[in-house]
Each structure stands twice: as C-alpha cells, then as structure tokens.
Specification:
The protein is of the alpha+beta class and 84 residues long. The protein has helices at 18-30, 38-44, 52-63, and strands spanning 67-70, 77-80. It is globular and about 30 Å long.
Length: 84
C-alpha cells in the first residue's frame, strides 16, 4: 500500500504538498474572519470551480485543529482556528 502522506502528515489522493497547504492557509487567512468555502479555495489556487479537489485537505486540517468548519456540505465555511 502506498503512503500518500507528505511532510505535513496530511494524507490523500492526490498527494497534498506543503505548497498547496500553505496556499490554502493563505487564502483562508486573507478572508478572516469571514472564512471561505471549499469551492472558493479551489478557484483561488487554480484548481477549477469544484471544491471537492481540496475537501480532503480541508477536512484533515480541521481534524488537526488548524481550521474550523462552520456548517456542513457544499456551503461549509472554513476559518483559521484561534492561535494559528
């Protein structure tokens, strides 16, 4: 079995690299305190209009305590956790 984790410990397919995580966090930070949806993140980093391409990474960042998720489904809004 192939380990798709990167240096951040974030797993997924396709593999998420540190640059992508940094881009995601930068996009969310720029929109604080309002936050952004997965679709907005995907568009901002040039991955199209469908947020499902970044959803796994966003959810892993929520699980790690880096991001907060407000809501569920396509309309969920992501913000930085306090202290990040």
């Amino acid at each position: 079995m192939t380990d798709h984790s990167d240096s951040t410990g974030i797993t997924g397919a396709p593999r998420t690299d540190r640059t992508t995580v940094d881009e995601i966090l930068g996009i969310i930070a720029a929109e604080e305190p309002r936050g952004v949806t997965a679709d907005q993140v995907a568009r901002a980093i040039g991955l199209g209009f469908d947020g499902t391409v970044v959803q796994d990474t966003l959810e892993e960042l929520v699980e790690q305590g880096v991001l907060n998720r407000l809501g569920i489904g396509h309309g969920a809004v992501y913000t930085l956790s306090a202290g990040v």
